[in-house]
Structures are given as structure tokens and as C-alpha cells.
TrEMBL record:
It comes from the Bacteria. Residues 11-308 form the Luciferase-like domain. This is Alkanesulfonate monooxygenase SsuD/methylene tetrahydromethanopterin reductase-like flavin-dependent oxidoreductase (Luciferase family). InterPro entries: F420-G6PD/mer, Luciferase-like_dom, Luciferase-like_sf. Keywords: Monooxygenase, Oxidoreductase. Gene3D superfamilies: Luciferase-like domain (3.20.20.30). CDD domains: Tetrahydromethanopterin_reductase. The lineage of its organism: Bacteria, Bacillati, Actinomycetota, Actinomycetes, Micromonosporales. GO terms for molecular function: monooxygenase activity; oxidoreductase activity, acting on paired donors, with incorporation or reduction of molecular oxygen. It holds the Pfam family Bac_luciferase.
Amino acid sequence: MRLDVQPWGETMAGLVSAARAAEAAGAGVVWAPELHRSAFVTASALAAGTGREAGGHSRIGIGTGIALAFARSAMLTALAAADLDELSEGRFRLGLGTGVARLNQDWHGVSFDRPLPRLRDTVAIVRAVLAGGDPIVHKGLRSIRVRGWRRPYPPVRPHLPIYLAGVGPAMVALAGEVADGWIAHELCPPTELRERIRPALQSGLARRTAPSAGFDVVAAACCSVDPDPAVARRRAANVVGFYASVRSYADMFGAAGFADVCAAASEALRSGRPADCLGDLIPDAMVDAFTIAGTPAHCAVRILEYDGLADAIKLSPPSYGLPADEVRHAQNRLLELVGSM
């Protein structure tokens, strides 16, 4: 099983430094999220800052994990992906996700109508633009009609892999049907993979019409490593609290018996509490259920629980509501763990 990392940095230089450390530790892919930074700009910095190690050539992958699918035109997404694949010398993976309704409508001023067919159209348009040709035409909820245009630069490789994020069964199945891989939500325990994700992926893969060279299942986990398990849990609790306050994840937490915690987190958010400082509402059992938190030995065992269920696991340090020095410390412990496995 491949160990991937979602690096953190207070500055872009710090982020690149963390990616280089992940590369030296043997990580397979470094992923750039999209929340406080642009995923494509971050991925550009990671691509430029990695790829070579003393005494050899490193092929660490670069991915967007994830870029928002609807906040840009599908054509601009395709062009950015092609540029990044060139910049990274064929190491790029385009990870896309829908985000939630409020983020699209209130933050970016774009429609969230029928996100599943809209994402299907996005993938089709990106593939059509990357394939080239004239005209480029696609009709759907997202449409494109391009005539008299050809990208004058040769592609680095004939196929650039596209990954889709998804939580609900229909969106997960779409990834199996049209993408090259699936990326998990940051809180995705092995039981979730086994009981909900793998069956949905299989249903999508069964509907696949285009040939596939292989499908990459990327699990994900916030990984908080410390000699003191209580400290590790405390650092990870704010991550769980943030998502517990978001309505879109209520079913996932409710199925695990934490509906009352979600209700308390949502009420605290409405009362003015910062979304990334709700960790005091999260019991240890909930942290243990949805993150990997504990001593290095304990975390190593927990990571291995994903083996056989996923091709890779994307590990991220706890960062929500923590001072920068503490996040850096937590990230260093995580990278030490990756290097030891």
C-alpha cells in the first residue's frame, strides 16, 4: 500500500519544504487541497520543488486533492492540468470534487444544481480538451463548443489520470465509472471503506465503458502522532469537530452513533464558535473512530488496517485550530512515521 501525504505549510516555502521531506521519507504522492490556497498554484509549487533527490531521480506524484470542479470552467481545469503535467514531467494527477452547496453558491457564486451529472460533464469536457481535436463539443448541464482552436503543445503522455472525490454512494460510483481513481474524505475509517465505499466503487466499475489500465483507490486520514496518546487525540479533535458541524457529513457520523455530537457542534457553530475550534465537544471515541491518533506504534498498526482495502492512504497532519509551531511538530512526527514504514 502506498503512503501519500497532504503536506502543510504556514508559507508556500514551508509547504514545499514539507513536500520535499515527504519525498525523502518515501511518500508516493503529495496532494494539494483547495480551501485556504489554490490547489493548482500549490500543485505547481510542489511540482517545481520536488522530483529530484541526491543520487537519483524521484518520481513522487503530484496531485490536487481536491480541486473544486465547478468553481472554474472545465476547459480552464483541463489547461491547468495539462500545464501541470508538463511542469511535473508526467507526475500530475488531477483530483476533482464538487464541494458542498454552500461553498459553491455562497463562496464562488456558481450553481450546485444536480452535482452528479454536472461532475460527469466536467470529466468528459476535461478529457475532450486534453485529447485535442477540432471541434471540441459537449452538450449537457455543462456544455462546451470550441471550433478553430488546437493546443499547439504536445502532451507529456497520452493519458492524464483523473481522480474524483465522493462521500455518497452515487458520487463514489461515478468515480468508478468515469475516473481513474477515487479520493477519500479526510475522515474515512476502514469500516467506511469496507461497508460503503468498496461496494459503490464496484457498481460504478461494472458500468464502465472505457478501458482502464487500473483504478487507484486512495483512502485518507488525519494522522496525529505523539508519544502521549492524549496529546495526539487533542490535536486531532478539532478536525473531527469541524466536519461534525457540517450538515453534509451528518449521516456518516450518525451511522456511527454520534448524531448527538453533530447536533451540539452545529449549535455551537450557529452560536458563533469558530468552525475549527470545536474539538472540546468531540469525545475520544469519536476521534479514535474517524482519525489515526496515538503513539507511533499505534498509528502504524492503524494505517496497516487499510491494506487490502485501498491502494494508497493520504495522510495529513492535524492543523485545525492549532498554532503553527504545533502543526509543524505534528507534521514532523507524521513524516517520521512515513519514513519508518
